[in-house]
Structures are given as C-alpha cells and as structure tokens.
Amino acid sequence: MKQAKRILLITPYGSYRTAAYVTVTGQLGFDCIIASTGYHAVSHAPGSTIISLEGGSTNLDLGRLQKQHRRTPFQGVIATDDSVVEIAAALTERLRLPGNSVEAVRR
Q: Which of 35, 89, 100, 107 is the most buried (most CB within 10 A)?
C-alpha cells in the first residue's frame, strides 16, 4: 500500500492565507494537515485533519504535532504567516525534516 503524501500547514487564527495554501497543497497531490490556534478559522477545509494548538505553550504544541506525525507522517511543514515560522522551524528540527533552523527564523 502506498503511503499518502502529507503536508502540515501551521497557521495562526484568522489567517487569510490558509485557504490558498490548502487549495495549492491539494492541487499538488498532498493531503493537508492543518494546525491552528483557532479551529473555526480553518473549518472551511473539508477533509483536512485539524490540530488545535494552544499558542501559548510551544512545548505542548510541539508535542501534539510530533504525536500527529507518528500517527500520520507528513513530508513537510509550511508556516503560512510570520507568527508561526518559529514553531514550524522547531518542529522540522525535531523531526529532521527539511526546513529553516530556529536560529535562522529568529533573525
């Protein structure tokens, strides 16, 4: 059985960019897993897995995302906005996925 290609999309509550990213990942043949601090902000993404983030606890959020990765591995992580690039970088470092380092995104 062929493993599904998945992308984790990390997006802040209310981002206007989310819908465009979901559309493009689908067009590229990826299933989209969405992590956001606001479930209703991304409820317009039917068929997508939604992960609720705390937003105030990076370690808790990283733990949730790592747990999701063990259940449904994703091949990449995309941050939709500047406010979520650091958690995306921290996650890619932990999972050894391609991406920017935390040090690089803090500059």
A: 35
Which one, of 85, 75, 68, lies nearest residue 12 by Cα?
85
> Mind listing the pLDDT tens digit for each residue in 17-57?
888 999 999 999 999 999 998 655 555 556 678 898 988 88
Alpha-carbon separation of residue 45 from 6, 33, 39, 60 (angstroms): 15, 10, 10, 24
For the chain, give the number of residues.
Answer: 107
Q: What is the CATH number of domain 6-106?
A: 3.40.50.20
- The residue written with tokens 């705390």 in the block is 54
Q: Would residue 14 be called left, alpha or beta, if left means φ above 0 and alpha means ψ between -120 and 50 degrees?
A: left
- Which contacts qualify for 17-26: CB closer than 8 Å, 24 or more apart? 17/80, 17/81, 18/42, 18/45, 18/80, 19/44, 19/45, 21/78, 21/80, 22/48, 25/78
Span 72-90, average pLDDT: 95
